[in-house]
Specification:
Layout lengths: L2 H14 L23 E9 L2 E9 L26 H15 L2 E10 L6 E10 L8 E9 L5 H6 L1 E12 L1
Antiparallel strand pairs: 1-2, 1-5, 3-4, 3-6, 4-5
Length: about 170
């Protein structure tokens, strides 16, 4: 796991105390290491007829600086690219995390047209709950690795996506 993601997971785990999940009020942005901030997002979980939907509340600039489109206030389904099933994949991770009420680590790679080296994405998805029963927010971080390309340029070259890891964390 990327050391920045590991540090965020350890921070979140320390805030749980004797609960399954910390609440948003337990998370103090000042305590989170600065090198992970551009990679962090905070999502509201909106339960709609028993199904979770995910709306961006805070989004690190790694996610939007290349497009110039800041997604705060928008739902994931309205923002993420559908390329190679990426949107469905990411929404599926958050849905699984919300139902399990457990932290998750995932990795995937994208094969890129004309490139020997794929783009990889490592992510940590951490549930937050005001009542320790229903996930109402997600603290997440993604680290994209793509040599000599912006994330947007890399997505334009995507041919396929493959999951490398999906782990439920304690």
């Amino acid at each position: 796991m990327d050391q920045r993601l590991d540090a965020l997971h350890r921070y979140w785990a320390g805030k749980r105390r004797d609960r399954r999940m910390p609440a948003r009020c337990d998370i103090d942005p000042v305590e989170i290491p600065g090198d992970i901030w551009p990679h962090i997002m905070l999502l509201d979980v909106v339960w709609d007829d028993g199904a979770p939907r995910f709306r961006y509340r805070r989004v690190g600039d790694v996610f939007w600086r290349g497009t110039g489109r800041e997604p705060t206030g928008l739902f994931i389904n309205d923002v993420l690219p559908q390329t190679a099933g990426y949107r469905r994949y990411v929404v599926g991770i958050y849905e699984e995390m919300a139902w399990r009420q457990r932290a998750m680590y995932t990795e995937n790679v994208f094969s890129l047209e004309g490139r020997d080296t794929p783009m990889s994405v490592k992510r940590i998805s951490l549930p937050l709950s005001n009542d320790d029963a229903t996930v109402n927010m997600v603290l997440a971080a993604h680290v994209f690795e793509h040599k000599n390309l912006t994330r947007e340029a890399a997505f334009a070259l995507v041919l396929a996506m493959t999951e490398r890891a999906r782990v439920v964390l304690d």
